[in-house]
Amino acid sequence: MKTTRIVIAGGGFAGLYAAMHFDKRLARRADVEVTLISRENFILFTPMLHEVAAGDLYPGDIVNPLRRILRHVKFVDADVQAIDLNARRIRCIASVADRELEFEFDHLLLTLGSETNFFNMNGVRDWSVTMKSLSDAALLRNRMVALLEEASLQSDEAARRQLLTFVTAGGGFSGTETTGAVNDFVRETVRYYPQLSEDLIRVVVVHPGNFILPELGEELGRYAEHKLRERKVEVIKGQRVANYDGVVVTLSDGTSIPAATLIWTAGVNPSPVIAQLPCEKERGRLLVSEYLAVTGVPGLWAAGDCAAVPILDAENFHPPTAQHGIREGVTVAKNIEAMILDRSLKSFRYKMMGQLASIGHHTGVAMVFGIKFSGFIAWWFWRSVYLMKLPRLAKKLRVMASWTLDLFFGQEIEQMITVRDIEALSGQLARIRARTKSGSEETKHERPIALN
User: Fold this and answer.
1) Using an 8 Å Cβ cutoff, are 114 and 305 in contact?
2) Residue 346 falls inside a structural domain
3) Which residues pair with 308 in a beta bridge?
4) CATH number, domain containing residue 132
5) Contact 129/139 with Cβ under 8 angstroms?
6) Do 233 and 324 belong to one domain?
7) 29 is in which domain, residue-wise?
């Protein structure tokens, strides 16, 4: 009996929801093998990342282990390195020991997401803080606490101001929500440091456009700007971050801002693995048909941030948002299933229901079914919608409990990860790699690379 091998590369929203569809259908069959490859063994609920940075939620509140969600789909914790379309094989690096794995496929679904784009600015790459992963959010929170502790020990006022200056590059959803969260956390926490005053704190968001949150339109963007300014956030429009050396942020007009922290949310690129593929692309993303099949390559499919999905009867493409990725993942899974079972394929059709943003201090902005609203109601609606979308009941209950406790007792200010912890962990990982590499070199000729 011939086994049809389906490999999903990427465990984000699109990849997980495709895997969940297969888990209920094809993965139960003896003649079908479905494998999900992801660099993390959990699904991260990215819309709530800034809540972790603000201390409103703990990191574990917004992640769900993939092995608890998937029962019949095989899961591999590995990082995709390269894809050979001719040999129909995908190469990965797994585990601390950098073990090489290869998988053959009949159908390959690429949902590799995106990575931070630093626009070839090495200083920004080396010194800035990003907001793409769970560790980014957790480390940003620990960084804020560490900077408050350091500032409390400084006697020089200029040094204190530099330590307590936070600049965000990019005024889209991620940048605006992160700025609001950082501003709330630092200003509400500084009262526990008698040596410091709120006047020393400076929070800045730099956006190249005429108004922040351009996805929501000018009206809501200007409302969000007004609310941020009320909370003492500086909004610099029409400028870009041109350089950062870890001490001073330089803007495109030459303005210098002494700051210990630059939060970079100014752009993303598709995964480097996508760039290696000899396929037609649209601004770096794989061009797919209305069925989410990659043009010109049978058995290759793509969804999510790495795919340029055309809008039917239009010349534009669907935006790379979570709500689109979820539905693209389900649609492409159904089409792969239809291809295997010799059924007709269905086009991807979806009209965005709306978009929401939390801008801090129990304030939000929203546009739902074309209706715009803002303030506390939008913030409450933001929390309600994303709470419902959070996978698994256990996580929903944890988040509800955390939010409720936060209303009564405020945020905690402990450092969960210190510099010493990171140095110790790095040393341990280096020793494990060295030991494992030494052993693998001796037995390399005995161990096959392929795992089918």
Assistant:
1) yes
2) no
3) 287
4) 3.50.50.100
5) yes
6) no
7) 4-116+269-340
How confident is the model at residue 39, as a pLDDT?
Answer: 92
- The number of residues in the chain equals 452
- The pTM of the full predicted model, rounded to 2 decimals, is 0.88
Residue 444 has pLDDT above 60, yes or no: no
Same structural domain, 97 and 215: no
Task: Read off the pLDDT band of 174 (50, 70, 90).
Answer: very high
Give yes or no for a contact between 70 and 41, defined as CB atoms under 8 angstroms apart. Answer: no
5 bridge partner residues? 33
Domain total of the chain: 2
CA atoms of 286 and 274, how far apart (whole Å): 7
Residues 6+ apart with CB under 8 A from 206: 167, 168, 169, 170, 171, 236, 239, 240, 241, 249, 251
In this structure, are residues 316 and 337 in contact, taking their beta carbons and an 8 Å threshold?
Answer: no
Give CA separation, 411 vs 53, 124, 150, 308, in Å: 11, 30, 20, 40
Q: Would you call 307 helix, strand, or coil by DSSP?
A: strand
CA 29 to chain centre: 33
Q: What does the DSSP 8-state code read for residue 314?
A: S
- Say which amino acid occupies 327: R
Question: Do 283 and 328 fall within a single domain?
Answer: yes
Residue-wise pLDDT for 39-78, tens only, equals: 999 999 999 999 999 888 888 899 999 999 999 999 999 9
Contacts of 226 (CB under 8 A, 6+ apart): none
- Tell me the CATH number at 108: 3.50.50.60
